[in-house]
Specification:
With 188 residues, the chain is mainly alpha-helical. It has 2 domains: 67 residues, Homeodomain-like (Arc Repressor Mutant, subunit A, Orthogonal Bundle), CATH 1.10.10; 112 residues, Tetracycline Repressor, domain 2 (Orthogonal Bundle). It is built from 9 helices and no strands. α1 crosses α4.
Length: 188
Amino acid sequence: MSSADSDPRRTEILHAVWGVIAQSGMGAVSMRNVAATAGVSVGRIQYWFHSKDELIRASLVAMLGGAERLHADATEGVDDREALWELVGHPIPRAETARAGVSVFHQYVAAAVHHPALAALLAEAKDGEEAEATRLLARLAPDLPDPREAARALMATADGLSLRVLIGGLSSAEAERTLGDQLDRLLA
């Protein structure tokens, strides 16, 4: 991470992007709206980001990097099973603040359908998550015929459950219980 990437003023702008998305959706992201949310001038945003596209990409990179750091912190010193649970269970929003973050993440996913750079960033992140889940499953359940396929199934289940929680069809506790049951069956 460069010193520019860790500059608090730049970080404040990226957080404002998330605020705009959380409040009004991805379509509302503009230099003007982000500036208003961050309490800075449009010129300040243009100092760091030359285009709206660059601003959106940088905000996704920051979100993915933040998620990676949170995962590293949450799994420091834990056993493989707990690390796997943290990895595959993270999409399920467990608190209202997490709900907003997961919602913003899903808006990036939706935008990626028509934005190849966002799609590439998200695919790389999911590939890394899948590789780590595969590694952990192979260690935890060495007799699994295809740990990679099992990792994909766990990740897909968690992603689907997170959508159900976001739209109100399922509680976080129910989603976690369902995912936990699937994990228990794999590791039995």
